[in-house]
Design brief:
The complex is a heterodimer of chains A (161) and B (254). Chain A is mainly beta. Chain A is built from no helices and ten strands. Chain A has strands spanning 6-11, 24-28, 31-36, 43-49, 59-67, 74-84, 98-105, 114-117, 131-138, 151-160. The mean pLDDT of chain A is 93. Chain B contains one helix and 19 strands.
Chain lengths: 161, 254
């Protein structure tokens, strides 16, 4: 079964920040994390080559995160997947193939790890060897995002759904 | 998270092996709105008073300068001002006694050619030693070479200093993410008054290659080769699974 197979894992150092409104690198103890503001909608970008064992299914994202200090409220993330196939131009990135938004509650203690799992995202035509760009946005302006203070993204995993 | 550094918490970068030209000072800096001079990074001779460094001239058109003072000063000034409260990549190349250059954000470059003979340095500081007003600093490095335009443009694009230079030329590096020395590169840096964290600029951090996770599966059909050997009523069979050799199995006849 391909379902459940891990396709990509990334930590904070893998971030390839956009030119503006980027999640900022920070340390939580000895861990490198990415801080997302609670007022400005910030983004982290990751890129990967689709591995050979990809079976063509939908993809879900697992975001491992914690809070800088908050212990109440909800954080809303959006995950977008952008498929770069042979012939696509890096100077004119294609539109996202799909996206999913997930809202998760803050941990009871800042520093406790929370995992947010997105809905399955279909990426039409995605094949092993293609480049897949993953955009992670905190929907700080969304009414559903009520968490005060920074959210710290620890890692990202893509799995075949 | 970058670091906010003024005279009250000035960073001492430790003892660095800068014995002559060329050398390069580089880093991301953010200054507050101010009409005063602020130092960003400096190497100096505590005996003679000579120094070479990067300054922000809030008192003079908000330019950033690469300055050498040996008896008198020679300063290369950026052709564009540094905007307050914004991150800028600043690089000063001290190529020789007669050549020093300043770069602001990979360009806005000026070169001056006044002779300033190198008379040694023994103090290496980061931050604003002029006043207690803090300047924000991140991704700072000191190299014992004269960086060229291409590398400086890469730094300005957000590439980490760890990725643009032969590490043997890197005398000192600190990303300044929330603190000093984690682990950094070069001698241990210290702060006279403790570090103050502030938001980090946009930088592509170096990381090693990532292993591809491959699921481990067996796929059939399987071929079973069995040899029978009967001793004392027991049969011992050797079973070979396709793709895997000599997985031993014992089968006992009923």
């Amino acid at each position: 079964m391909a379902s459940g197979d891990s396709l990509m894992t990334a930590d904070a150092l893998s971030n390839r920040p956009p030119s503006a409104d980027f999640a900022t690198v920070d340390m939580r103890g000895d861990f490198v994390v990415l801080d997302f503001d609670d007022s400005t909608e910030e983004q982290a970008q990751f890129q990967a080559v689709v591995p050979s064992h990809f079976a063509g299914g939908e993809i879900e994202a697992l975001l491992t995160w914690t809070t800088s200090s908050a212990v109440t409220g909800n954080c809303k993330f959006e995950v977008e997947l952008v498929h770069f196939a042979v012939g696509d131009n890096l100077d004119s990135p294609p539109a996202a193939s799909g996206s999913s938004q997930v809202t998760t509650a803050a941990p009871a203690t800042s520093g406790d790890i929370v995992v947010a799992v997105s809905d399955s995202i279909a990426v039409t035509g995605l094949a092993a060897g293609d480049v897949l760009q993953v955009l992670v946005n905190r929907q700080a302006a969304d009414v559903a995002d009520t968490l005060v203070g920074d959210v710290e993204l620890i890692s990202l995993e893509l799995r075949e759904a | 998270m970058a670091l906010a550094i003024g005279s009250s918490n000035l960073v001492d970068l430790g003892s660095l092996s800068v014995t002559d030209y060329p050398f390069t000072l580089t880093g991301w800096f953010r200054v507050p709105s101010s009409s005063t001079l602020m130092t960003l990074m400096r190497v100096s001779n505590t005996t003679t008073g000579s120094y070479h460094g990067l300054n922000y001239e809030g008192h003079n058109a908000n330019q950033v300068v690469a300055i050498s003072r040996v008896s008198s000063t020679s300063a290369a000034r950026s052709t564009a001002p540094m905007s307050a409260n914004q991150w800028h990549q600043v690089t000063g190349v001290f190529e020789s006694a007669t050549t020093r250059r300043i770069y602001l954000d990979g360009g806005n470059q000026t070169e001056v050619n006044h002779e300033r003979l190198f008379d040694g340095v023994d103090d290496f500081s980061l931050g604003n030693l002029a006043t207690s007003t803090a300047v924000d600093a991140a991704e700072v490095a000191l190299l014992d070479i004269a960086l060229q335009d291409g590398d400086i443009q890469a730094l300005a694009a957000g590439i980490s200093p760890l990725m643009i230079s032969d590490l043997s030329n890197l005398l000192c590096y600190h990303n300044c993410v929330r603190r000093l020395n984690h682990p950094g590169w070069g001698p241990v840096a210290t702060s006279s008054g403790g570090t103050i964290a502030t938001e980090h600029p946009r930088v592509l951090m170096p990381r090693g290659s990532q292993a591809v996770i491959q699921p481990c599966r067996f796929s059939g059909p399987y071929t079973v080769e069995q040899e029978g050997l009967q001793t004392d009523g027991a049969e011992r069979a050797e079973v070979n699974l396709s793709g895997i050799e000599n997985v031993g199995a014992e089968a006992f006849a009923a």
